[in-house]
Amino acid sequence: MPRPPKHRLVEELPTSDYFKPAGIPMRQLDEVVLSIDELESIRLKDYEGLDHADSADRMQVSRPTFHRILTAAHRKVAEALTQGKAIRIHGGTYRIAGRHRCRECGHVWTDAEDGVVPSCPDCGTEDILRAGPRRRGRRHGHRGPRREG
Predict the structure, then answer these.
(1) Which DSSP category does 47 fall into?
(2) I want to staple 94 with a disulfide (CB 3.0 to 4.6 A). Which of 10, 21, 79, 81 is the partner?
(3) Domains of the chain: total
């Protein structure tokens, strides 16, 4: 019996969970499912420009495991782009990184352990707030700055 997969650390959840070719109704498209941890590997390596070792450390997996996750993600994205398929971002073996903010100095950081945060890494105080996962994009209902005229 194989060993159960280790949960990969994900720092950011996607703001969208579907991408599709423009002008083609969804009912006419096949889809490729990209897992949350596969998307995180693309974000770390391709978007943030980290090397495999740093990306693997951030996801808390070995380098060979990170390479397998990234290779599978690249293959799926290439299939969707070359074959005109939709990409659905869903599922995977992951846990969301906890973010914390120090009430004393305002330092914000992501924990590397399962929620165990004894003190601020900058000032050492134990007065800590849980900040939740980072999200990119606009919040629901935000329209941006008003335009005059």
Answers:
(1) I
(2) 10
(3) 2
Evaluate whether 95 touches 5 at the Cβ level (below 8 Å): no
Q: What is the pLDDT of residues 59-82, one digit of tens each?
A: 999 999 999 999 999 999 999 999
Query: Tens digit of pLDDT for each residue in 34-59?
Result: 999 999 999 999 999 999 999 999 99
Range 101-118 burial, b when 16+ CB lie within 10 A, else e: ebeeeeeebbbeeeeebe
Residue whose pair of structure tokens reads 């060993």 in the numeric block: 3
Tally of residues, the chain: 149
Residues 6+ apart with CB under 8 A from 131: 99, 100, 101, 108
Residues 80 and 105 reside in one and the same domain: no
Angle at 67 between CA 63 and CA 68, to 5 degrees: 120
Residues 66 and 105 grouped into a single domain: no
Residue 145 makes CB contacts below 8 A (sequence gap 6+) with none
Cross-strand bridge partners of residue 129? 101
The two tokens of residue 6 are 């280790």
CATH of the domain at 85: 1.10.10
Residues in CB range of 142: below 8 A, 6 or more apart: none
Read off the tokens for 51.
């090397």
Its domain, for residue 86, covers 8-96
